[in-house]
Here is the input.
Amino acid sequence: MIIKIDFEGEIPIYVQLKKQIILGLAKGELSRGESLPSVRQMAEDIGINMHTVNKTYNELKAEGFISIDRRKGAVVNSTSTLLTDEYHEQLTEEVEFIIAEAYCRGITEEEFIKITRTAFKQYSNR
Here is the structure.
C-alpha cells in the first residue's frame, strides 16, 4: 500500500495517514489480521514524527479499525463490526454538509448521485 501525505496541505498529517489507511482497507490493500508497520517503521518510511503515527494508530484503534497487540503491533480488524448507531449519525451529519456545500456550488442532485455512485462502486466491486 502506498501512503500519500501532503506535507504542505492544511489537513493534519495524522488525519491524512488515518484516511490513507482506511482507504487501503476499503480497497482491499489491507486485510483482516494483517499487521501494520510498527509506529517507528511507519514514521521512518513516511518521514514523520513517531507521535503522529501513534496518534493515528490510537484513533484507528478507538474507532475499531485496528487492534494493538504488544506482540504483533497494530493489526487490522474485521470491518463488519464497525457500523454503529454513532457512526451512522456522524455519517448523516457529514453527508448533509457535503450535500449543502455541493448545492451551494451549483451541483444538481443528479450530478451528486452520479459522483457518489461512481465513488462507491470502486469499493463495492473489489
In short: The chain is about 55% helix and 5% strand. The mean pLDDT is 92. Residues 85-104 form the longest helix (20 residues). The beta strands are 66-69, 73-76.
